[in-house]
Amino acid sequence: MTSHVCLQGIFTPNLVPLDCRGDINEPELRRYIDWLIAKGVHGLYPNGSTGEFTRFTVEERRRIIEIVSDQTRGRVAILAGAAEANVKETIKACEYYHQLGRRAVAIVARLYYKLSPASVYAYFKEIGRNTPIDVTLYNIPMFASPIDVPTVRRLADECEKVVAIKDSSGDIVNMIRMIQAVRPHRPEFAFLTGWDAALMPMLLIGCDGGTNASSGVVPELTRLLYDLTVSGRLDEARQVQFDLVTLFDTMIYSAEFPNGFRAAVDLRGFNMGIGRQPQSDEQVTDLAALSRALQCLLSQHGFTDEPIGGCSTSSGKPDSVGGELQTQDVSAIVHTVVAELKRRGLV
Amino acid sequence: MTSHVCLQGIFTPNLVPLDCRGDINEPELRRYIDWLIAKGVHGLYPNGSTGEFTRFTVEERRRIIEIVSDQTRGRVAILAGAAEANVKETIKACEYYHQLGRRAVAIVARLYYKLSPASVYAYFKEIGRNTPIDVTLYNIPMFASPIDVPTVRRLADECEKVVAIKDSSGDIVNMIRMIQAVRPHRPEFAFLTGWDAALMPMLLIGCDGGTNASSGVVPELTRLLYDLTVSGRLDEARQVQFDLVTLFDTMIYSAEFPNGFRAAVDLRGFNMGIGRQPQSDEQVTDLAALSRALQCLLSQHGFTDEPIGGCSTSSGKPDSVGGELQTQDVSAIVHTVVAELKRRGLV
Amino acid sequence: MTSHVCLQGIFTPNLVPLDCRGDINEPELRRYIDWLIAKGVHGLYPNGSTGEFTRFTVEERRRIIEIVSDQTRGRVAILAGAAEANVKETIKACEYYHQLGRRAVAIVARLYYKLSPASVYAYFKEIGRNTPIDVTLYNIPMFASPIDVPTVRRLADECEKVVAIKDSSGDIVNMIRMIQAVRPHRPEFAFLTGWDAALMPMLLIGCDGGTNASSGVVPELTRLLYDLTVSGRLDEARQVQFDLVTLFDTMIYSAEFPNGFRAAVDLRGFNMGIGRQPQSDEQVTDLAALSRALQCLLSQHGFTDEPIGGCSTSSGKPDSVGGELQTQDVSAIVHTVVAELKRRGLV
Amino acid sequence: MTSHVCLQGIFTPNLVPLDCRGDINEPELRRYIDWLIAKGVHGLYPNGSTGEFTRFTVEERRRIIEIVSDQTRGRVAILAGAAEANVKETIKACEYYHQLGRRAVAIVARLYYKLSPASVYAYFKEIGRNTPIDVTLYNIPMFASPIDVPTVRRLADECEKVVAIKDSSGDIVNMIRMIQAVRPHRPEFAFLTGWDAALMPMLLIGCDGGTNASSGVVPELTRLLYDLTVSGRLDEARQVQFDLVTLFDTMIYSAEFPNGFRAAVDLRGFNMGIGRQPQSDEQVTDLAALSRALQCLLSQHGFTDEPIGGCSTSSGKPDSVGGELQTQDVSAIVHTVVAELKRRGLV
């Protein structure tokens, strides 16, 4: 981790609370942003995949950035998701977010069609040539055309406005290859991982930070993992990373993405509302089990006084006797939940 | 092929011509639609994947449907692509297209996130419950969450407004499974294949028609293949199908989809303009070779007088001596083109 | 289907009965071969994937070919599976099978490592140069390195001993591409499909036959499907193909491959014994349901008097009132079985 | 890394030198083993995927274990690859390797068919019940049926003879899940990674060692990486890991696996002979470039006096001025090689 990179630390790809009519719940969004900043995240990343950017209209996406920018008031950096229907619309979004403030940084990805590396290059090159704001490449092969190593290198070499990559593949060797290809020529270029379950090893092989959905649920733990890892307290970091894998797996596999995360944020005391993707009757997230898993996890790492939505039927401390025991308990709970979800066909 | 299905024959997923500013070229689009209808296609399918619906804004997508509806004036059926950002916006589009005329039929697909079968069901169920217009399910696993057989069956059983499925997977056995699961209860439910390269066998195992991108380039050939197949002239049909595979492969693998199709329509005498996906300098489609392949193919099947964009440097007839010879020539040309494209890294 | 190809019709990739010690049950294998020939299959294909060639030792594989050759006595053609550990051992097998009789034809595939097209070519080229017996390429991408179209073409052009390809991918467009690439120069080269669920459309686009596991269970039906298709009785053929998809899906998805086929052959009156792949306690194939599905299917197509292992608790005729009804019954049974199997986690 | 696990450190999945007739070159194999042990590897792993076990006969596989056992004479531990055609044959191999000496440990994997988790469990359970020797599970999803986390846990819980897993997937999060699932109940159970490119982060999240093909080429570097990582010298370790990624990528992508490794061992002064998988004329590994990459890499880390096959046309030191410079040089060379290989269609 070099000290002069442009982006560093934990960025939260924040969810968007909705009201009973399904519209953006602005007061709750503002309250949620304040809470995330208070809990220690280094930045916010509105309109990412976790923030369901594709399920909002163009106007709503702009409104979300406006609210986040206004509420943040420069306290933390903002990476504004800026993927629109085509290059022209994306550049328009970049220009608008640029007006909103100097700290904002646009992230773009490409949707739907499977593009060849040559086309991925051409797409970002066109944006890189015309954007007034710094651009972070966004690689998420499970949802969009992958950005391969030679393309990252070429864009980094040719476009000074391209300043970082956010990679959600979880492929640690590919991350090494990208860092090898880019860092010698662009030492300030930043590498962020979007795969929470590998945050610690990603930081250890050279990443500068992460855009991690779990930081929207347990920002104190994600921040702790970052701090423990970069300060070399690896035994402690490993335990937090292992627990985060358990939590991440529960949230990501227990419901349609990102509904597990929406349910979990509810448990932290927010009202996320009903998501925009309709759910069939069978798809009800088991909040009780998720609640207990969250409670255990937080109490175990010393965040016991945190309310989790009033549903904490656990007495709070019985799991806290010994570290080993607790982890197994969490694990047992998680396995029970997952088994139950599988039984219902939700996984 | 039963006679009472709601949708039958060849529907063209039409491309959209753009002018020099990158905006919709309305006069050329109207001219193109007239030509397609004159060449015999049974219907039009604007705002499909071939029509690059994701690269247009909401307003542009509506304008495309308006132009197509107005120009068609009821001569052929229209399947209007209606996939929008979320269920609410999609239903709004359905309502608007419903107002444009009774014959219009909406097609919806779901983008970006990988959805479980339960969520795919919930999504279409919500639409099926609220749409004023008939809905065709659109299964295109290479770009969007697949719609599996039990989900198709369940939606067909529960939603009378769901009247057809358009499947672009090219998986013939899955098509058999879908027909087996749905036709006994919904004999009028239509099955359309979007995979041109398997049109003949798909019709032979029970499909009612196709939404085939090649019908936007060689509508006379796609229509001929349909007619030969449904009238049982299989030896002739097989030869046309084989040639269509060659042409389809050339267009789909010689350039980023759907640019090969855009270039080919140019060769038929239209001005498609530059597409919205930027191309790098290396990605120039070899129009000369594609032109020659098209010319050969058309002349071979008796459509020799057809101009192909003024660029026919071939004398038109040297390839026409014997059927066998021509096919091999076409094949040789195609292989040369593809080899060259591979050499340039375009494939 | 040209009349002068070297291989034509339905070849059964026969299973191998085992005795109570897990060794080859020779008398039962001989009885099974006689039955298959009597039921009308055009050839046998011992030591294929269905025949679990990888689970036998080198010596056992040779013994299987000896028994099949001896029992067949030239009544039908034999494709002898000849894949061994490396080129030298495979050529040795080819030589041995050549000695066993002129009609034998070797099939080779390559295991384990993912090979590039260049290596697949080099491997078959080396065999093609040294084999005394005709060779059928065996493409089964789900289990082994794929043989792509240019490689098939190159081997067909360069090796006269390579006389056919057996393709188990089920990809009908790829089959068209292979036929286009090879048939003009090698009109006698044979194309066989190993994907039973697409046998009819594969024959209609130009295949010469199939190596179909279902022909080891219901040889009369697979043969009937072949005969109806090549004689142009497409409506009848389609119905048989649809039923075969149902049966094929039941056998292939209801148990670990090829155990569903082993169980089904038991129901036809043979004693296949316990397979060599151990099964956990949960993995017991539901023979009662499979038995009923088989019984229905056979009776429906006029093969009612056929005993199916003495377990036919159905009275034989209640399902036979109307064709439509029967098919739905079969379908209902199949769905019940599959649902049950899914519940047990076997699928 | 706990101190009481049964297997720890770097195990070399050794290649097998062949003579001009293609048979095992015993003297060279013995010389190679001595060299590996002298260079510091903690163990040997004959008959792994790198050792091309599937390309040898049963008798040859036994002979390889005999030679390795005899030459090692207890100096380092041996994991003997023991995958045979079926359970019975595999258990026979286990019994034989058990007789050869107490330190030998069998590794088994399952080939060809895609098995369900239930069948993978049944297979290993049967072996675990009958083996006289400790068994290491071998998970290599790119070549064989994957062993999922619940199956590893179940086998670890039920079979005390199952003492370790070797995982070649490179999936670091899955490794975390396996360690979480097994270590609480079986603290001595060992986790080895077979993916060299992720060795450092795998050790940091809790692995006990690796079975790494690169340790057969640069055993001093792989050992150095292990030592630096476990002693917490992470900045140095990271640099070695990055270089190892470069070398690993060169060897694994520059030729058909494992031919890049065979060529590289030749460069270290051994005569590996021609491999058993035939190569087409185009597939000649560019030894000059590989040689230079190896030379640079070794000299850079202080192993400059090492002969690399007499082909070192580089003067040995020009790249050694500064660490940064060298890495870029290596990188440039590697990129040139890979580009050239791509041009030739070898990659």
List keywords for this structure.
347 residues, globular, alpha/beta, disordered C terminus, homotetramer
Largest sheet of chain A: 8 strands, parallel, barrel
Order of helices and strands of chain A: EHEHEHEHEHEHEHEHHHHH
pLDDT averaged over residues of chain A? 83
Number of H- or I-type helical stretches of chain A: 12
Largest interface: A-B, 39 and 40 residues
Question: What is the terminal separation of chain A in angstroms?
Answer: 37 Å
Beta-strand percent range of chain A:
5-15%
Q: Based on Cα principal axes, name the global outline of chain A.
A: globular
Count of individual beta strands of chain A: 8
Describe this structure in words.
The structure is a homotetramer of 347-residue chains. Chain A is α/β, with parallel strands linked by helices. Helices cover 46% and strands 10% of the residues of chain A. The first copy, chain A, has twelve helices and eight strands. The first copy, chain A, has an eight-stranded parallel beta barrel, surrounded by five helices. In chain A, α3 (87-99) links the parallel β3 and β4 (105-108). In chain A, α9 packs across α10 and α11 runs antiparallel to α12. The longest helix of chain A is centred in the C-terminal third of the chain and has 21 residues, at 323-343. Chain A starts with 8 loop residues before the first strand and ends with a helix. At the A-B interface, α3 and α4 of A face α3 and α4 of B.
